[in-house]
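Hi R.,

Here are the chain sequences for the assembly we discussed:
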Amino acid sequence: MSIIRYEQTQGKSLGFYALIAGLGAFILAALGSVYFMEHSGHHVTGMSNRIVWGLPHVFALFLIVAASGALNIASIASVFNKKIYKPLSRLSGLVALALLAGGLMVLVLDLGRPDRLIIAMTEYNFESIFAWNIILYNGFFLIVGVYLWMMFERRMNKYSRKVGIAAFTWRLILTTGTGSIFGFLVARQAYDAVIMAPMFVVMSFAFGLAFFVLVLMASYKWTERPLGDAIVNRLSNLLGVFVAAVMYFVAVYHLGNLYLAENSAVENFILVDGGIYTQLFWYVQIILGGLVPLALLYSPMTKGNRSMLGLASVLVIIGGLAQLYVIIIGGQAYPLELFPGKEILAGYGGIASYVPTVPELMLGLGGMAVALIAIAYLVKFLPFLPESLADDVANPHHKG
Amino acid sequence: MNRWMVLLLSLMVTSVFAHGHSEHTLGTEADSIKSSDKTYHQSISMIRKMHPEFLNHKRDKTLRQGVRTEEYSLSGCVTCHASKKDQSNDYHAIDASEQFCSDCHQKVAVTVDCFSCHRTTPAEGVK
Amino acid sequence: MDNTINRRDFIKATTATTAGVATLGAGITLTTYVNANENPVTNEKRWGMLVDTNQLTESDIDGMVSACQKEHGWGDEIHSTGDQKAGWIKKVKVKDTATQRISNLALMCQHCDEPPCVDVCPTNASMKREDGIVLVDKHLCIGCRYCMMACPYDARSFVHEDLTDQKEHMPRGKGTVESCTMCVHKVDKGEQPACVSSVKSDAVIFGDLYDATSKINQTLKKVQSTQIRADLNLNTGVRYSGI
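And here is the predicted structure of the full complex:
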């Protein structure tokens, strides 16, 4: 294996500026949406007192979950000492930070009072999982930042494994914390399950890797750098394993809920007669975001085909968004069980309706655009990407 | 050098307070207290400098501990310092432009967050 | 400083007569407003409410809702639609699936002893007073709505639009969360919550749960009462009998 040389991308082509302009337009649209939502109040959104977290939270949590997952590549390299992933470590750290920044932006800008963000940073209730998450997010920035520094600075390279282990531990705690935002809501039947936390961890593996694969393939294609099959096929296999693992956890979660008689009604709602939520669950989350990518990644006809890997990654992302939509919004749409053993005739109940509005969608997409624009710019200014990932450079077992 | 800094700063500060003196924005009740030669605040300069601290301290005591004394209550500020409109018996919102609060706060570009929730005129029935 | 006057005296005098200003002497005392709530509330009391659904009529509940709206000024939101509108207290009709018995009750913040909203709030804005009243400190509320996710009673509302002309004692504002305050401003003055006083019968009793001489304490000892979602062990301050 030859020495890996990292180099900035040129970032002077027309394509680069077109990319920046396109993403910039999304960000502007998001900022416009935020101004509109915050100026008028949340009545212009589809959110209400029943559906208190809407589409922005779907995007925000997706990005945050994916962020911790994107760090996996670096972790595999440094924690589990898999040399082939080592050249990807820097990019992995970068994608993780960028996704987290995008997700937090969406989360913060959907607050009722985003102008009071300083309060969230100064007033902590240590019993609140949300407050812990704020600390975990800030810590993630810090620790991944240090990790990147260890990787960039030759003199510090020897510490990168130790910091890598710390970062890996931190990201596991972070995603557990994100999952626990829902897992400890005793009042909501759809959420009150300890499995939420590990399920979020596995989801992060899949979503983060899908995002990473797309960023990697796009940046090597657009900068015309060689990217060998050895790495791509590994990532493809890994993605398949993660997608299957997510489906396994989803199955366990729903079977576990069905087993508890008290939760069978909400399960029935999600799985059978929940309208849009049922459709999203089966058609988008399970089929489009699970079975189809698995087929693309493993069937002999499409295996090894990069376009198909890209398509599979896009589908995993779409399926992931659908999954969070079903969890977050479907879980709220189903009414609280106020009087077990009684039927509520009037005054409360029924399935809450939620129709997302354009500003909410634009805010969510804006978060993605922020992540991507950060990646596009930083690979231009700092040497994140190896100049070649051809098989003879990247593969430690390459012969000849 | 330092002497010039002090001079500059005090000029800036005086200009702010000078602005706060304008009679017509003192508020209807506060005006009549003043014209009858009484004072309500023990020290005007203290209130000018410290009112955010006083109010924040009081708000926590009221909300969290149920201490509901008159001292430093925001509704007290509003009751005295809101100005009646010329034509009617209604009040201007105290945070409206050129009214008591905004008069200074605009000048020093410090936003007042109180009135995103609190009532901006004296309670109904106080005329 | 001999000219210091008390604002309350001042307003009293000026509203009584315009000549009152002239008659105000110098150095009027500050002692006219001595009251128990100069001191912080303590956990020697726990405020609670008992709703007897056998006695409570549907029109009683409607009266409670409108008394609450009138007291706190919610319900007039212009732009909010459907579930976006504030709802601090609502009328709920439930049927027992086994006995078919129908009860009507008023549902509002249950003022839990172990409130989930307080546990989850990242900024300590959701808070419980020493005397058991659960409130939102809107000075600290950032509008994250996690408390609304956590509340088992759907008791909280988020302000979805700009508001003006709030009640003096009840600040409310866009982007923050609000709910029943058990009329804390009245309770601190020794009065009853607005909804309680709107009911003419004894169907709703308010008082100190700990005080063995209070009506609510004595009634709770006699009649069988229940907490909504008692299985969650939140030890609510609002209790119900007859459901």
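Chains A and B do not touch (no CB pair under 8 Å). The radius of gyration of chain A is 21 Å.

Let me know if anything looks off.

Best,
T.
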